[in-house]
Amino acid sequence: MAVEVKVTATLQKVVGGQRSVQGEGGTVREVLEDLDRQHPGIMDMVMVDGQIHRFVNIYLNDEDVRFLKQLDTPLSEGDVLSILPALAGGSA
Amino acid sequence: MLCESILDTIGNTPLVKLRHLSPKPGVNVYAKLEGHNPTGSVKDRIALYMVNDAEKRGLLTPDRTILEPTSGNTGISLAMVARAKGYHLLCVLPDNVTPEREALLRAFGADVVYAKNATSTNDAIYKAQQMLAEEPEIYYMPYQYGNENNPRAHYETTGPEIARDIGRVDAFVAGLGTGGTLTGTGRFLKEHNPDVKVVAAVPHPGDLVQGLRALEEGFIPPVLDESVLDGRIVVDSRTSFAMTKELMDKEAIFAGISAGAVIRVALKVAERLDEGNVVALLADGGWKYLSTSLWSMDWGQPHAEVQGKIWW
């Protein structure tokens, strides 16, 4: 199953400047592994010691997968993953 | 209500039932209106706690200037507390804040410097830390992102107020800025009911992300205790704006932009419950956003104005 993965500036460099790429897989992990085959280096940027990097939030549609089933979060047809850096909110 | 000082009017904000937006019978969504604080935002709570604690510990003395990086609300709250107690405040702002904010800071007697080329709060933090390092003897920096009095204010006031006003809380939703509101309030509510779900609404970083050179430049505030969170939901600017407008149209509540995001997430959480109470904390009122076209725009149409600015 193919899902859309949206990436921001730092990752766009690795995927040839695209804002959105297609990945194959039934879980978040499988999609990341597929993306890393297409664009080597993505895994190293997003993961540390087998876990999602502290400064990276991966959202399934609009929910952080850390609070779902992390990398084993299952995906459905039409889902969109977004890989975003953790940033402080503003009004702060 | 008789008060000895403006500082005594901080907190005890109303908790209002959203009669029209609550999605189904048996599930109630309540909005805690932090816009009712004296400067119109939740940040009055933490400004008072941080300054009181610094005085108590001797970190803040009358000869020192309070220095704080802020894109708005915390600066305005600190400006009020500083004026009430006789201190001078210097705020370091990123250069994309709305004009009302600077005007308010100056009205309270605070001074403002802009962090050059700063598009995010991160840049303002960096600039303020530099200023402090250069002249540590003239400044006191509360640093809300790392000050334990930030979550403590919410643990001791916001949480107890909610528990007092409605006995049963099934979910608590607030915006994630410093993480202080979610950490402090969430911690208190969980001590009373471990099953309460604490959910963060986070702004989609959108164009602001373009300034990041590496993921390591991401930022997790030290006061945020992620173990308190049960979910984190991202909301884009357009959705936040549209929901803020809907909150006005359906409930006559005049709130700031982040309120739209928080309500959006609260409704999503509410839809998953069969029954119960969801509390959404609305960090500020709508006044500081009047210079935007928020209230007049047709939110069915995409619009450039919402991109690349800090809204909360």
Shape of chain B: globular
**Annotated CATH topology of the largest domain in chain B:** Rossmann fold
| Sheet/helix structural class of chain A | alpha+beta
Low-confidence stretches of chain B: 209-213
Portion of residues in helices of chain B?
A: 25-40%
CATH structural architecture of the largest domain in chain B: 3-Layer(aba) Sandwich
Summarize the largest interface: chains and residue counts.
A-B, 25 and 47 residues
Q: How confident overall, as mean pLDDT of chain B?
A: 90
**Structural class estimated from helices and strands of chain B:** alpha/beta
- Label the overall shape of chain A: globular
CATH architecture of chain A: Roll
The parts of chain A where pLDDT drops under 50 for at least 5 residues are none
Mean pLDDT of chain A: 89
Major beta sheet summary of chain B: 6 strands, mixed
Count of individual helical segments of chain B: 8
Rounded to an integer, what's the Rg of chain B over CA atoms? Answer: 19 Å
Biggest sheet descriptor of chain A: 5 strands, mixed
CATH class of chain A: Alpha Beta
Helix-strand topology string of chain B: EEHEHEHEHEHEHEEHHE
Structural overview:
The complex is a heterodimer of chains A (92) and B (312). In chain A, the strands form two sheets. Chain A has a five-stranded mixed beta sheet. In chain A, 22% of the residues lie in helices and 30% in strands. In chain A, strand 5 and strand 6 form a beta hairpin. Chain A has one domain: Ubiquitin-like (UB roll). With 92 residues, chain A is of the alpha+beta class. The longest helix of chain A is centred in the middle third of the chain and has 11 residues, at 28-38. Chain A starts with a strand and ends in a 7-residue tail after the last strand. Chain B is an alpha/beta fold. Chain B folds into two domains: 6-36 and 157-300, Rossmann fold; 43-140, Rossmann fold (3-Layer(aba) Sandwich). In chain B, strand 7 (171-175), helix 6 and strand 8 (197-203) form a beta-alpha-beta unit. In chain B, helix 1 (43-56) packs across helix 5 (149-165), helix 5 crosses helix 6 and helix 7 crosses helix 8 (257-271). Residues 209-213 of chain B have low confidence and may be disordered. The chains are: A alpha+beta (92), B alpha/beta (312). The interface between A and B is large, with 25 and 47 residues.
